[in-house]
Amino acid sequence: MTGKERLRCTMRHEQPDRVPIFEFLYSRPFYKEVLGFVPKVFGAETIVACSQKVGYDLVFIPMGGVSGFNAKEDSGEIYTDEWGITYKKDPATWPIDATIKYPMQSGADWESYTIPDPHIPSRYDGIK
User: Fold this and answer.
1) pLDDT digits (tens, 9 = 90+) for 73-107
2) What residues pair up with 98 in beta bridges, in sequence order?
3) Mean of pLDDT values over 2-26
4) How far apart are CA 72 and CA 39, in angstroms?
5) CB neighbour burial string for 50-73, b if at least 16 within 10 angstroms, e if fewer
6) pLDDT tens, residue by residue, 44-70
7) What is the DSSP string of the chain?
8) What is the pTM assigned to this prediction?
9) Which residue has the higher pLDDT, 42 or 46?
10) So what's the pLDDT on residue 75?
11) Helix axis angle, 44-54 relative to 28-35, nearest 10°?
């Protein structure tokens, strides 16, 4: 079976030839071993390349703008995303930067908080 057939079979609650295999979080040593380099940003292109080279059946791709996964390479050591969450880049927490401050410190903060637009087309750039 191909990975796609294996996954479809599993989703139909049927018996595939083996359990579909995938990973959703890659470490720096894993990237180095498989691709020969460590990407600066945890993004769709390197996730797909790594998954294909290993032969996984499924590729998990984080959707843009919903977590610290998509910090731009040129953002500083400490940055705030569109959700108002402040992160600090730290090798120990890569690929997910360490959260150091949330936009809401109390229930009262909900009154002035605006959730980012979930329909911005660029959110899908990484999976096109």
Assistant:
1) 556 788 888 888 888 887 777 777 788 999 999 98
2) 88
3) 93
4) 12
5) bbeeeebbebebbebbebbbbbee
6) 888 899 999 999 999 988 765 444 445
7) --HHHHHHHHHTT---SS-----S---HHHHHHHHSS--SS--HHHHHHHHHHHT-S----PPTTSSGGG--TTS-SEEE-TTS-EEE--TTTTTSPEEEE-S-SSGGGGGG--PPPTT-GGGGGGG-
8) 0.63
9) 46
10) 62
11) 60
Residue linked to tokens 């290993």: 54
Q: How far is residue 120 CA from its own chain's centroid?
A: 17
Residue 105 tokens, joined:
């410190």
Over residues 11-18, mean pLDDT: 96
Residue appearing with tokens 């990973």: 23
Rounded distance between C-alpha atoms, residue 96 and residue 25, angstroms: 9
Q: Are 87 and 81 in contact (CB under 8 A)?
A: yes
CA distance 115 to 108: 15
